[in-house]
Input
Amino acid sequence: MRDTLPLLVDTDFPRIRRDRLDTLQLNLGYLCNIACVHCHVAAGPTRKELMDRDTMGLALQVAERHAIRTLDLTGGSPEMNPHFRWLVTEARSRDMHVMDRLNPTIMREPGYEWVGAFLAEHQVEAIASLPCYSKENVDAQRGNGVFEASISALQELNTLGYGQPGSGLALNLVYNPLGASLPPSQAALEADYKRLLADEFGIVFNALFTITNMPIKRFGAVLLAKGQYEDYMALLRDAYRAENLKNVMCRSLVSVDYQGYLYDCDFNQMLGMPLGGTEARPHLRNLLEADGPPRGISVGGHCYGCTAGQGSCCGGALDA
Ligand code: SF4
Ligand code: SF4
Output
């Protein structure tokens, strides 16, 4: 797999600085029950990297030390980490808001039937990937059978109260484009998703997050292999909007890898670009001792993916 990192490091993307820290985003490991073409983590069923319980405990101490109120869990499939339930239970007992970036097909895997009920019991915000409302497109991007498994999992989440008015159980869906294009308008697509999923499958949800594909890892390699890398980068740069800079997620979040090392965001984590533009590799242990993370942020050409058009972050469009 060809790596786009050497093409991204030399950039004219503006310097940005962190201004607050309200979220710890923990990557619990690269193990996933499926292997999507666009995956910027290159996750899949054969990956062995998983966060251990000591590192999770350290993350909870750091959250307490810096009054961080939100834990954003990602992967891979976070629920496949054997300590997932321990971590969620501990964080909720500290009254932290917990978000689970859920690939809903995990709920249809043998041995993971507990996922929906567990999330509901602990009032975890579910952020479920569903890259399209069409079976053909979802299966093309994620593999055969993924659409049907996702739909039935979302129906189960609805039955548990997710997405239902007044339940307090938020169900948000994530869309990303199939290929080398920018996402359409988040508001318009959300309206389409709501109408079609309700009409066809009786599914309700709170919000749709549209996320721009990043030219890194597996998706970056696909762009290079198809000769589309330069055009995609030009698309991102041409759609640059400076007003998105104030809301890029690295200004309020620190990303933690499965070993406890720190990055400015999940994308930088995957590229191995350490937190704060430093040569050193800061770790959770350093945050436990420090007054806060460094203010500097490591930027690269991929950052244009966050500022293009309506903007993009783990919570969808920046101008929403
Ligand atoms: S479900 Fe998510 S983590 Fe798993 S391979 Fe697909 S994009 Fe990657
Ligand atoms: S890619 Fe990461 S570092 Fe760059 S702007 Fe986006 S969130 Fe910030």
Observations:
- The beta strands are 23-27, 70-74, 97-102, 125-129, 171-175, 207-210, 253-256, 262-263.
- The chain has a mean pLDDT of 92.
